[in-house]
Amino acid sequence: MIMSSDPKVAEQPAKGRDQLLHVANLKKYFPIRGGVLNRVVNHVKAVNDVTFDIARGEVVGLVGESGSGKTTVGRTILRLEQATEGSIDFDGADINRLNKPQMRRYRKRMQIVFQDPYASLNPREKIRTVLGHALALHNIGTPSDRDDRIVALLEQVGLSSDYINRFPHEFSGGQRQRIGIARALAVEPEFIVADEPVSALDVSIQAQVINLMDDLREKFSLTMLFIAHDLAVVEHISDRVIVMYLGKIMEIAPTRALYRVPNHPYTQALLSAVPNPDITERKERVILKGDIPSPINPPSGCVFRTRCPIAIADCASIVPPLKQVAPDHYSACIRTAGV
């Protein structure tokens, strides 16, 4: 279900979709302190009124420039960051309202693959210990059979069982990320947040890791929020794509529709920047002026208006809600979406 805080533009849920996650009016503000008394003087509005859903078994790509709030959305959904406002409904339970024992049970169902494969693994622990922590924390298996489970996890992500006694520094970046994926899979989750899992890897290794995640998604019927800034990667793995800019959603659409007929000018600019391997095909670039504004003091009205090539005076005063422009396709622009 895609909706706005304005009830007049609220949309009905898509028919036939078994909703696993519904995020409604999510906000995450980080306080800025200053002065002699260290009082809160302002806020970084990292995520500012975001609403979307993910169906069971679906992979949703979340894209946007650095500083758009993508990673904060993922971390807040898993309650690695506490939401400032809004609700996060996971399979019927509002994550924000769970106490610690209840949240621990839900953490088994919700896992994350971190961006940096070098920083996400403890350099002092062997892989047996790294993966064994997850099993022990959630009381999965007995101590005697956990090594067999760890070996099976390594083999599932394409690594040899001989690696169980190695330290993280003995692996390449791609191998470390495979271990990170194995750690996420260890507790048999239903939902995974993949936070730019290939951005730190070489291009040749990126394809291997993406194909691995795609295979594991099919094998284990995983639901996934795939965060990335590389639109070519997102196109390969995602069923739908959410485009964010400065803490707000600009567009949501099925992957094929978004890449073929992007509605929002920001999405059009992002797609125009994707390299085209066919050198004979001329591609018109949309060059955005300036840099992304500060989330401390975002522009009034449409947050994209200061860089938008088609902005008009009304864009400074109207906050455009998401409006349906095609089946399951929503855009937040008073010009292209007719808001």
Keywords:
Rossmann fold, disordered N terminus, single chain, 4-stranded antiparallel β-sheet, alpha/beta, 339 residues, 12 strands, 8-stranded mixed β-sheet, globular
Write the layout of secondary structure elements.
Blueprint: E1 19-34, E2 39-55, E3 59-63, H1 70-77, E4 85-90, E5 93-94, H2 100-107, E6 110-113, H3 127-137, H4 146-156, H5 173-185, E7 191-195, H6 203-220, E8 223-227, H7 231-237, E9 240-245, E10 248-254, H8 255-260, H9 265-272, E11 323-326, E12 329-331
Parallel strand pairs: 3-8, 3-9, 6-7, 7-8
Antiparallel strand pairs: 1-2, 1-4, 4-5, 9-10, 10-12, 11-12
Helix pairs in contact: 3-5, 5-6
Can you give a write-up of this model?
This protein has 339 residues and is an alpha/beta fold. 27% of the residues lie in helices and 24% in strands. It has a single domain, classed as P-loop containing nucleotide triphosphate hydrolases (Rossmann fold), CATH 3.40.50. Helix 3 packs parallel to helix 5 and helix 5 runs parallel beside helix 6 (203-220). The longest helix is centred in the middle third of the chain and has 18 residues, at 203-220.
Q: Can you give me a brief rundown of this structure?
A:
The chain has 9 helices and 12 strands. With 339 residues, the protein is α/β, with parallel strands linked by helices.
Topology-level CATH name: Rossmann fold
Count structural domains. 1
Largest beta-sheet details:
8 strands, mixed
**Mean pLDDT over the full residue set:** 89
Beta strand count: 12
Look at the structure and give the CATH class.
Alpha Beta
Radius of gyration: 21 Å
Q: Helical amount among residues, as a percent range?
A: 25-40%
Shape: globular
Strand order of the largest sheet: 6-7-8-3-9-10-12-11
Please give the CATH architecture.
Answer: 3-Layer(aba) Sandwich
| Beta fraction | 15-25%
- Cα(first) to Cα(last) distance is 18 Å
Order of helices and strands: EEEHEEHEHHHEHEHEEHHEE
Low-confidence stretches: 1-16
By DSSP (H or I, 4+ residues per run), the number of helices equals 9
CATH superfamily: P-loop containing nucleotide triphosphate hydrolases
* Strand-pairing-aware structural class: alpha/beta
